[in-house]
Each structure stands twice: as structure tokens, then as C-alpha cells.
Design brief:
Layout: E1 2-8, H1 13-21, E2 29-36, H2 42-49, E3 54-56, H3 65-78, E4 83-86, H4 95-100, E5 105-109, H5 121-127, E6 132-139, E7 149-156, H6 163-186, E8 190-193, E9 196-199
Parallel strand pairs: 1-2, 1-4, 2-3, 4-5
Antiparallel strand pairs: 5-6, 6-7, 8-9
The structure holds glycinamide ribonucleotide.
């Protein structure tokens, strides 16, 4: 099994769905560490309750991004981590860190990339008059939310939606998509190859449910 660390900044609902999926005996990854850049991240308590070692590395205690990332790197190496999963991790990582983990770090973003990179994705999808919205799992590259796409799930935008109701519809799909995408990668069904995602012959996007 691949040794996985999950990085969070907040409530950690995606983290919980990954921890639960990884309990299945045949799941190809094990969640061995949870790290947060904020000591008040609610997900830390939830990880500990699930029996996963979890701790904060408070970014405020570091002079710059490079020294924070070095502390992160030391923790990850100490735990023998092979894959990093960003789950609501709201801190920009240095190019050097991202490049050191190229092909071994994924993120989930609450939009159908390449639309709506950055924050406030649900409000922006509504503002743009989208009829479909969703979430994307992608490899992390230095450019924000621009990495090769592993899997996506779409939801309808319904009359009367506000950012909150739309977010609630998307997060249900996030909780389904992320464990499926991690299984695909950890099990060798998808890999980064020359800057593109190569799916194994038998695989399809686990999110495509339309
Ligand atoms: C999720 O919707 C995730 O897609 C988003 O933050 C939320 C975290 O929720 N991530 C980003 O916006 C990354 N830029 P969670 O802590 O309950 O998993």
C-alpha cells in the first residue's frame, strides 16, 4: 500500500472520506499522517479520533514559505510518505516543494477546471450563469490549480441555487470522487506521464457519472 499524508487547513470533510475509504482491506493506499498549517483546523481532532497521527505545523511560526515547506518536508520524510493528498489545504507551496513532489501530489478543487481557479468558485460559477459545475482532482504543479486532471465530477446548477446550496451539492461529489481518484493513482491505474495523465487501459474517469 502507498503511504499517504493528507494536508488540510480546515474542517477536513474530504480527509474523513479518504480515511473511511482507506479502511477497506483492498484499498491501495493507507493514510498514515495528517498535517495542518493551522493549529485550529477542526480536521486535526477528527483525524485523531480516527486513530491517525495528526499535527499542526503552524505557518505563522516560520519566517517565509521556504522554511515552512522545509518543516513540512522533514515531517513527510520522517513518516516515509510516498503520496501527498491536499484536502482543503489553503496555503501556497513553493515551486521547489511542488517540483520535489511532481507526480506524487494531488489536490481537489471545487470547480470543473480549468474554469474557476482560485477561491469563491461556487459564487463565480453562479455569476457566470453555468448550468453545470463540479469538482476536479488534479496533480499539483507550480501554477495554481493548473495541473493535469485525473478525474472530475459534474453536478447541475439548479434554479434558486446560492453559493451555499451549490457547494453542498458539489461536496457530496468531492467525497465520492477523491477516494476513487486516490485509489486509481495509488493502485497504478493512473500516472503522470510527460505532463499528462495516462490512464491504464481498463480505467475510466471514476467521476464521470453523468
Ligand atoms: C473543499 O470544497 C475543497 O474542494 C476546497 O476546500 C474545501 C475543503 O473542505 N479546496 C480548495 O478550495 C482548494 N483551493 P474540507 O476541509 O471539508 O475537505
Amino acid at each position: 500500500k502507498k503511504r499517504v499524508a493528507i494536508l488540510i487547513s480546515g474542517r477536513g470533510s474530504n480527509m474523513v472520506s479518504l480515511i473511511e475509504a482507506a479502511r477497506a482491506p483492498d484499498y491501495p493506499a493507507e493514510i498514515v499522517l495528517v498535517l495542518a498549517n493551522r493549529p485550529d483546523a477542526a480536521g486535526l481532532t477528527r483525524a485523531q479520533a480516527a486513530g491517525i497521527p495528526a499535527r499542526a505545523i503552524d505557518h505563522k511560526g516560520f519566517a517565509d514559505r521556504a522554511s515552512f515547506d522545509a518543516a513540512l518536508q522533514a515531517e513527510l520524510e520522517g513518516a516515509g510518505i510516498e503520496l501527498i493528498v491536499l484536502a482543503g489545504f489553503m496555503r501556497i507551496l513553493t515551486d521547489a516543494f511542488v517540483e520535489a513532489w511532481a507526480g506524487r501530489m494531488i489536490n481537489i478543487h471545487p470547480s470543473l477546471l480549468p474554469l474557476f481557479k482560485g477561491t469563491h468558485t461556487h459564487a463565480r460559477a453562479l455569476e457566470a450563469g453555468m448550468r453545470l459545475h463540479g469538482c476536479t482532482v488534479h496533480y499539483v504543479v507550480p501554477e495554481l490549480d493548473a495541473g493535469p486532471i485525473v478525474a472530475q465530477a459534474a453536478v447541475p446548477v439548479l434554479p434558486g441555487d446560492d453559493a451555499e446550496t451549490l457547494a453542498a451539492r458539489v461536496i457530496v461529489q468531492e467525497h465520492r470522487l477523491y477516494p476513487a481518484a486516490l485509489a486509481l493513482i495509488a493502485g497504478g491505474g493512473a500516472a503522470l506521464d510527460g505532463g499528462r495523465v495516462r490512464l491504464a487501459e481498463a480505467e475510466r474517469d471514476p467521476g464521470a457519472a453523468l
